[in-house]
Design brief:
The complex is a heterodimer.
Chain A (H helix, E strand, L loop, with lengths): L25 H11 L1 H23 L49 H36 L3 H15 L2 H11 L8 H4 L2 H12 L1 H14 L3 H8 L4 H9 L4 H25 L10 H12 L5 H28 L9
Helix pairs in contact in A: 1-13, 2-3, 2-13, 3-4, 3-7, 3-8, 3-11, 3-13, 4-8, 5-7, 7-11, 9-10, 11-12, 11-13, 12-13
Chain B lengths: L15 E5 L6 H8 L16 E2 L2 E2 L5 H7 L4 E4 L13 H12 L4 H14 L5 H4 L9 H13 L5 E5 L7 H18 L2 E6 L2 H7 L2 E6 L2 E7 H6 L4 H8 L40 H5 L5 E2 L6 E2 L14 H6 L1
Parallel strand pairs in B: 1-6, 1-7, 4-5, 5-6
Antiparallel strand pairs in B: 2-3, 7-8, 8-10, 9-10
Helix pairs in contact in B: 3-4, 4-6, 6-7
Classes of the chains: A mainly alpha, B alpha/beta.
């Protein structure tokens, strides 16, 4: 029992008895809640591994020698088909030993292309996410902070963007991208062009969320107090309000990353995404689907699995972040 | 609608002014106007001048006004639980204010911040700088707000109901602290409150506001001892007093404050006044000297009525 009259020096130990309360910071709570979200933790580790393999390990494992001399886990050139000793292409080889994922209809190693495809898909996801986060936040913040003309103009523009039919516009612009010669090369083909395109199409929903947050936060007393202390508008927007609106921004951005990866896959599947021979998961699924009807299932299965697992992981992380960033949640789940 | 109309007053350096009135009487709007914190679409200052140390604040560009806010005029708000930004430490927020107004290094600003916390009697100020607002109690947070307000040695401190959200013992401590700090530094304080007890112990002068205008002004002793306006008298009569027995119901000013969208003609207090006469419906009374030397009141009857001789119970019954 706790001795309420416990006086120092009367023999009772100071630390074992008596009430003590340690302060817990918001950050501690956030980490604790996130760690309890098992799916989000596993997903984070998975996504981390995928990123490392796609961007670091894959390129390092490159093998310049012929098909017979390279051994797993070394990776071949993702543009060249494998040939046997008689210089014939090894097309549609089923998974085996040194070719664990098999080859596609042009004889290219599927594992190599899944790894390289991860680079394209993740680049699109991350670059689109960053673009959406910055565009949506700036537009939403200005609209929410400055009522009247600024708000009206920005929100009507947002409505316009949200009103665009996503796939048709993406298909048309994606088709036109390689012909827009005024753009730099890296924008015309490859994942960056698609990422920018998707970034400009997807920021609308985040802008609305940020605006709503700003509308309620700008009325808070601490904002009034900051203004009374002589803070400028810019300081109030970015230093005082924005950090309080971070959680919906982070959560929405993760969801956008997942959506962008899927939309890129859809575009590539339809042939309007990243140009061949650069592999993407969506493009591989498309060509894999073509040969899968003849029984060569591996290209479709491995590329689609990589896509689905990555998007799932991103969405689980978003889920975990939403729970962890919600201050009304207690530390316990369920 | 005009939330504040025709309010005009002067404050001396170092003066402690109490601004008293019901909710919606225009106390806060007056204070916010001085700070130029009224912005469309919430509202607009349509006419008038606000002169501070010889400068018309209404003519100042926004940049210069930002230097005035927090630097020369500081403000403390009602609810200390929400006036601090929850995502920054108390130190961050103090240092931010100090560095906005004083040209000092971050290191010096931190030292000034710690001194400011020490001045408001927060123990271990250097360590508490790194705590977040939620780690402070309500009274402690209001101390932090006072520290923040006074950290740049303003000439005028506007305190908008600084103790309303606090419990009674904390209220007393905070008021004592503000009194001591204001006296030590010679800071003028404009104390906005509806708590007459708080005003009595703190202020040199009092202005009573009603429906967007000043109805009575005077120094504290004169106004309390000899209220000239029936509204002031009603407010004083509605206070509980420890030195009297409570056999009767407390006096209350009947009715509710008028809508400012469609204010009553003549004196705005006429629907609630117990001494209303024909003239009260016809013309708005101007502020004029009445009662003791320091006092002015906006009542047609101010000089004729001697409110102190009227039997309170008789009025309550009516």
């Amino acid at each position: 029992m706790t001795d309420l009259l416990n006086r120092p020096g009367d023999g009772a130990s100071d630390d074992a008895e008596g009430l003590a309360v340690e302060p817990i910071t918001q950050w501690d709570l956030f980490i604790a809640r996130l760690r309890r979200h098992r799916l989000a933790m596993i997903s984070s580790i998975f996504l981390f591994v995928v990123i490392i393999i796609s961007f670091v390990v894959g390129p390092l494992l490159k093998c310049d020698k012929g098909a017979t001399e390279c051994e797993f886990p070394q990776l071949w050139d993702h543009t060249q088909g494998l040939k046997d000793d008689d210089d014939r292409l090894l097309v549609n080889i089923a998974p085996r030993g040194s070719i664990p994922f098999g080859t596609d209809e042009l004889g290219r190693d599927v594992l190599t292309r899944v790894v390289r495809g991860g680079q394209a898909s993740l680049t699109v996801g991350i670059v689109t996410g960053l673009l959406v986060a910055s565009l949506g936040t700036v537009v939403g913040a200005l609209a929410g902070y400055y009522p009247g003309v600024v708000d009206q103009a920005l929100m009507r523009f947002t409505d316009l963007i949200l009103g665009l039919p996503l796939l048709p516009v993406a298909i048309v612009v994606g088709r036109l991208l390689p012909e827009l010669t005024f753009l730099p090369d890296w924008m015309q083909s490859g994942p960056w062009g698609i990422a920018f395109l998707l970034g400009f199409l997807l920021w609308g929903s985040l802008a609305r969320i940020v605006r709503a947050e700003f509308l309620s936060l700008r009325e808070k007393e601490f904002v009034e107090a900051a203004r009374a202390a002589g803070a400028s508008d810019r300081r109030i927007i970015f230093r005082h309000i924005l950090p309080n609106a971070m959680s919906p921004i982070i959560v929405q951005t993760t969801l956008i990353i997942g959506a962008a990866i899927i939309i890129e896959a859809a575009l590539s599947f339809l042939g309007f995404g990243v140009r061949p021979p650069t592999p993407t998961w969506g493009g591989m699924a498309a060509s894999g689907a073509g040969v899968a009807v003849r029984g060569f299932w591996w290209e479709l299965v491995f590329s689609a699995s990589a896509l689905v697992m990555t998007v799932l992981a991103v969405n689980f992380i978003g889920d975990g972040l939403r729970d962890a960033l919600d201050p009304t949640q207690t530390i316990e789940r369920k | 609608m005009r939330a504040v109309d025709g309010v005009s007053f002067d404050m001396m350096a170092g003066e402690r002014r109490g601004v008293v009135g019901e909710s919606g009487s225009g106390k806060s709007v007056t204070a916010m106007s001085i700070m130029r914190l009224i912005e469309p679409p919430a509202g607009e200052i349509v006419t008038g001048t606000i002169e501070f140390q010889g400068q018309n604040l209404l003519a100042l560009p926004e940049d210069d006004m930002q230097d005035v806010r927090g630097g020369r005029i500081a403000m403390i708000f009602q609810d200390p639980m929400t006036s601090l930004n929850p995502v920054y430490t108390v130190g961050d927020q103090l240092i931010e204010t100090i560095m906005l107004h004083q040209h000092v290094s971050k290191h010096d600003a931190r030292r000034i911040a710690a001194d400011a916390l020490g001045d408001v009697q927060i123990p271990e100020p250097m360590a508490r700088l790194d705590d977040y607002p939620h780690q402070f109690s309500g009274g402690m947070r209001q101390r932090v707000m006072i520290a923040m307000g006074l950290s740049c040695n303003p000439d005028l401190l506007i305190a908008d109901e600084p103790t309303t959200a606090l419990d009674v013992t904390t209220q007393a401590q905070i008021m004592d602290l503000m009194l001591k700090l204001a006296e030590d530094r010679g800071t003028a304080v404009m104390l906005i409150t509806h708590d007459l007890g708080v005003v009595a112990g703190f202020c040199d002068t009092i202005q009573v506001m009603y429906a967007g205008g000043i109805v009575e002004y005077g120094n504290a002793t004169d106004l309390f001892g000899n209220p000239q306006h029936p509204y002031t008298w009603g407010l004083l009569g509605s206070m509980t007093r420890l030195d009297e027995s409570h056999t009767e119901r407390l006096h209350s000013v009947r009715g509710a404050p008028p809508s400012l969208i469609n204010p009553p003609l003549g004196c705005r207090f006429n629907p609630r006044c117990d001494f209303v006469q024909d003239i009260c419906h016809d013309s708005y009374p101007a502020l004029r000297e009445s009662g003791r030397e320091s006092q002015i009141a906006a009542c047609h009857l101010a000089t004729e009525l001697d409110l102190n001789t009227i039997d309170v119970t008789g009025v309550v019954g009516s």
